[in-house]
Amino acid sequence: MSEPFTRVEIAFYPEHLNHWLRFGDPDEQHDLDRRRSLALFKSGRLFGYVRWRANEYGTQDWRLTVVQTAEPSLLLSRIEGVTPGGEVLLLVTGNAKVKRTLLQIDGLEAAGFEPADVSPAYYRHVHNRITAGQPIRAYSMAQHEAHLAARQVAS
Q1: Is 12 exposed, middle or buried (CB count within 10 Å of its CB: 0-12, 13-18, 19+)?
Q2: How many domains is the chain partitioned into structurally?
Q3: Cβ distance 40 to 6 under 8 Å?
Q4: Is residue 83 part of a domain?
Q5: 46 bridge partner residues
Q6: 119-151 pLDDT, tens per residue?
Q7: Rounded Cα–Cα distance for residues 124 and 19 (Å)
Q8: What CA–CA distance (Å, rounded) separates 55 from 122?
Q9: Is residue 30 part of a domain?
Q10: Who contacts 62 (Cβ-Cβ below 8 Å, separation ≥6)?
Q11: Where do runs of H (alpha helix) occur along the chain?
Q12: What average pLDDT does range 99-116 have in this prediction?
């Protein structure tokens, strides 16, 4: 029996629609046509998914979701563009919150962390702090090492 994948819809229609992965390395990727593709992730993987949509009046919807994939038999959150769903670690909507979150992810990369390897607890922290309009605690090397050690013990 083949391993189930989480499918993520990627699309780009200039000035109207852009759904893309901010981070996360898919296990497989299939191009559907020149504007659309599917990214496939195995269970337990993390990725950042950005959905942006506009019309003649400007941006209508902009959201960033950090998702951890899971087995389809588990309780999953429904996420537009992600089938069958996943565990939502962070969800922000709107121009200001998405930009603040993207800057936070840029900061993680600048500090030498791969965003897909960052602790899920940290993304929950970022979600809560952005939602509350509060400062975000920096992600530390000690926190990262503890996360990697716990992940190794669990596997």
Answers
A1: middle
A2: 1
A3: yes
A4: yes
A5: 68
A6: 999 999 999 999 999 999 999 999 999 999 998
A7: 22
A8: 34
A9: yes
A10: 50, 51, 52, 53, 93, 94, 95, 98
A11: 95-110, 120-132, 141-154
A12: 97
